[in-house]
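Study this fold:
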Amino acid sequence: MVEPAHQHLSISAQCRLLRISRYCYYYAPVPETDETLALMTVIDATFLDCPWYGSRQMARHLRRAGHEISRRRARRLMAKMGLTPIYQQPRTSDPHPQHRIYPYLLRKLVIERPNHVWRADVTYIPMRRGFLSLVAIMDWATRKVLAWRLSNTMDAGFCVAALEDLTWIINQLESDCLSPRTVHPAKFLRTCGTIRCVI
């Protein structure tokens, strides 16, 4: 695209017209050293035995084997070789084909007060080995978390448990056993002779 022997346009002008920097034009890729190629061979052989190794585990494994390598270098070399670890990824957004899709009922609803509309959200928290699922029930008007639960499975039980905890708190408020200032789902609620905690 850039012609160095052009009669009327210099290399700088051609780079400006093509909207590329002169550095990109003059850059020559540096080949990997023999040491790095040998390290890539070791990474490839290790990955064949342990395809679930990510860059952290690969770097730890290679350091135990006597190679000087950082996690960033292991990640770069694995990305260059196209090695992606095989592990169970969270599937929080995939709907079941037999589940019904409900209409959005809040389209024209004006939400101006607390406890008018709640919303629940399920997400995942990456851990050292695997992940945990987190459900949070929030008040739409105040944007405050009213109840939450953690689980190591994606069943509906922990979502129902968070909703039951929230309804318990609301019932206690309505029966005047709790002051609104003392209600915080993450703390122990010692009222009416009952101890309950949202975990």
